Amino acid sequence: MWRSPPGGDKPVRRVGRFMEVNVNELKVPTQLGEVVFQVEGPEHGVPIVLLPGLTLNSEDWPKSLRRQLRSEGFRLYRMDLPDTGASERMKSDFSWSELTQAVESAITQAVPGPCHLVGLSLGGLLLQKMDLARLAPLSLTLLMTCASTYPVSFDGLKSLGKLLKVPLHHCEDRAFYESLAFREHLALRASESELREIRDRVYRSVERGWPYERGPQRQMRLALEFFSGTRPDFSHWTFPTLIIHGGQDPLLPVWSSRALHRQIPNSRFVVIEEMGHEFRESLSQILLLELLPHFQMDLAEVAV
């Protein structure tokens, strides 16, 4: 049986379209200040920790994806990385080592027992840097991320140039419009209804993450440092690993993610052709077709 998490969680009631969802806000201390999780799902469900991407926060995960995972019995821990979202803001720069130690500490304090770890974009880079042998996760899922040994494409560099300006901290409205423009660029062939969905999500994300201050710039510096660093040692990765990439990703080319698959022993690589570098609600079911067997297979192995 999973043990109860430490104190400090604050219940928040969210009313959705289909049902009323109770979300607990859980805060834990780390060397990079207080880190905040949004926790939802069955109290004794198997935990899934969701690590967001660059400039993103815990509000950026699709509602339909979260709803389906809850209905399958999983308990979700949506993290705001240090210096972003509702987590405490830093007054100075920090290193990869400090960031990974803070995230590992936050997960150890907040999550009751072994968990599935899911990293999106920068969150996937973070997983490659973490001491996973100590955390002993049930599984790993790397979404829209890549290998450190392969540089981004020319189109990716143009996207990074846009991202360096997003979100600006001059005013909240400017942050919203700059973020929206970049997110629409990452989504590529989105329909009008999907663009409205992205606009709603960007609004929630900016509202939650404001004021941004220097958090995005610090994240960008770490991401660029990742690509200029040495290749991580994957020889100790014995955890089931799923790598999912968008066939239309304008930021990170598919071949850079495929290179990561070749470096990680016994990993599984999936390309979703309709996906860019942005989640859309319409892709949730396609993602779930890959995620649920990955999570449930690990549960079966644990039960044995």
Structure overview:
The model is unreliable at 1-19 and 299-304 (pLDDT under 50). The protein is α/β, with parallel strands linked by helices. A nine-stranded mixed beta sheet has the order 1-2-3-5-4-6-7-8-9, with helices on both faces. Strand 8 (241-246), helix 9 (254-263) and strand 9 (268-272) form a beta-alpha-beta unit. The chain contains ten helices and nine strands. Helix content is 40%, strand content 20%. The longest helix has 20 residues, at 284-303.
Topology, please?
Layout: E1 9-15, E2 20-30, E3 33-40, E4 46-51, H1 63-71, E5 74-80, H2 96-110, E6 116-120, H3 122-129, H4 132-135, E7 139-143, H5 154-163, H6 172-187, H7 192-209, H8 215-227, E8 241-246, H9 254-263, E9 268-272, H10 284-303
CATH architecture: 3-Layer(aba) Sandwich
Strand line-up of the largest beta sheet:
1-2-3-5-4-6-7-8-9
Distance between the termini: 16 Å
Question: What's the CATH first level?
Answer: Alpha Beta
* Order of helix and strand elements from N to C terminus: EEEEHEHEHHEHHHHEHEH
The number of strands is: 9
User: Could you list the spans in which at least 5 consecutive residues all have pLDDT below 50?
Assistant: 1-19, 299-304
Q: Tell me, briefly, the overall form.
A: globular
Predict the CATH topology.
Rossmann fold
> How can the largest sheet be summarized?
9 strands, mixed
